[in-house]
Amino acid sequence: MQTYEPKPLPFQKDLIGISRRTMEIHHDKLYQGYVTKMNEIGQELGTFARGEKEPAGNQTYSALRALRAGETFATNGVYLHEYYFNGLGGDGRTIPDNALTQALTKTFGTMEQFIKYFSASGMAMRGWVVLAWDVQDQNLRVYGCDAHNQGGVWGCLPVIVLDVYEHAYFLDYGSDRAAYIADYWKNFNWDAANRLFEHINTFRLT
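Structure (tokenized):
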């Protein structure tokens, strides 16, 4: 397996409410720790894939089963964090008129309703909230995940990802998750999200 390299933060500016210290812990330690484990698991799985180890599987317990379970947890831990970081560093208080916001307005009625619904989902979930482009029905959907490898839907490509694990906000907000989510939108990078949406919106199942 090719070694995966961690991505730097896509912004340098200070965020509203979310401290540099939180971002250092979140990005430089937690996220990069997931990258390390993703690579470690991939190397171990490679020994089975190449026939260097006998890939005997057992659904109660086996080395292969443990690696398979760890693989999706670590890999989603990497990718979801990258989507989350990609959405920060902007001036979210000014919502532009672009392809993404037009699609959100069409789907949810108004931008205010989308943000209200997405934020409420963030209060309801234990780990993540994801706005995704569903390639099956060609529409935007909001999904929630309690863990990295739980709650995702095949064929859905993330556009906006919110981390609601306590490590994302507890240092700055204590238990006030609602205040953290409100500040998330103040820091949101609508231009970056729109570039991603315009890219994946071209994907169609034939």
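Strands lie at 128-134, 139-145, 156-163. Helices lie at 20-49, 63-86, 99-108, 111-124, 170-173, 177-186, 190-200.
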